[in-house]
């Protein structure tokens, strides 16, 4: 319905009816109101407003989710970088420790080889000496004016050469003779002030 239809509406005439001029004036006012109402901006419906709010909420949620994903990705990348740097530092420390250990082992091997060569040379020197000869029985001393202490029996005489006894003990130790056997041999053939101390030094030097 438009303005013309409202204003040109005709009514049948009747006796004692409404004043035609008043009716037309009323219709003009209605037409004015109708026209003003049609020109007024249309107010958005509740459904449209609600839809806009929901859309805004969804967009905000999607934006927040994207920021969270970006932050998580950035933090994950930083964590991987930190772990990688720590791993590289640890590997560098392990390599330095390995290098130091290799150098130490190399020095120990060299020292062990030199010590082995020295022991082999010492064994060769001792082997050329052989066991110390048993000294000849001492001849009876001429009787003195005053009585003298009796000399040991000829078949039981022992040498007092401590250096010779030490060489014999070292040779026996390097050949693998037990300490007791070496002690028995030295006690039988040598007169030593401290047999046990000599054996301690010899067997310690031989690494026994």
Descriptive report:
The chain is built from six helices and no strands. It is mainly α and 208 residues long. Among the domains are: 1-40, no CATH class; 72-113; 158-208. The protein has helices at 3-7, 20-39, 46-129, 162-174, 179-189, 195-205. It starts with a helix and ends with a helix.
Per-chain topology:
Blueprint: H1 3-7, H2 20-39, H3 46-129, H4 162-174, H5 179-189, H6 195-205
Ranges where pLDDT stays below 50 over 5 or more residues in a row are: 135-154
Got a strand count? 0
Mean pLDDT: 78
Number of helices: 6
User: Roughly what fraction of the amino acids lie in strands?
Assistant: under 5%
Give the class from helix and strand content and strand pairing. Answer: mainly alpha
- Cα separation of the termini: 129 Å
Fraction of residues in H or I helices: 55-70%
Rg from alpha-carbon coordinates: 63 Å
Features:
208 residues, mainly alpha, rod-shaped, 6 helices
Gist?
The chain has helices spanning 3-7, 20-39, 46-129, 162-174, 179-189, 195-205. With 208 residues, it is mainly α.
């Amino acid at each position: 319905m438009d303005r013309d239809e409202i204003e040109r509406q005709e009514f049948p005439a009747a006796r004692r009816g409404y004043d035609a001029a008043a009716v037309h004036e009323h219709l003009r006012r209605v037409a004015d109101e109708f026209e003003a109402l049609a020109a007024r901006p249309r107010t958005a419906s509740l459904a449209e407003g609600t839809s806009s709010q929901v859309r805004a909420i969804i967009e905000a949620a999607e934006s927040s989710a994207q920021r969270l994903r970006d932050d998580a990705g950035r933090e994950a990348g930083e964590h991987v970088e930190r772990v990688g740097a720590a791993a590289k530092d640890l590997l560098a420390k392990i390599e330095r420790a390995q290098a130091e250990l290799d150098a130490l082992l190399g020095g120990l091997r060299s020292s062990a080889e030199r010590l082995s060569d020295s022991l082999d040379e010492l064994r060769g020197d001792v082997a050329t000496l052989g066991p110390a000869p048993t000294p000849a029985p001492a001849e009876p001393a001429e009787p003195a004016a005053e009585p003298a202490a009796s000399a040991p029996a000829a078949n039981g005489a022992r040498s007092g050469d401590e250096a010779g006894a030490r060489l014999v003990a070292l040779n026996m130790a390097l050949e693998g003779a037990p300490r007791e056997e070496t002690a028995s041999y030295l006690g039988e053939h040598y007169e030593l002030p401290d047999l046990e101390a000599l054996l301690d030094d010899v067997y310690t030097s031989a690494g026994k």
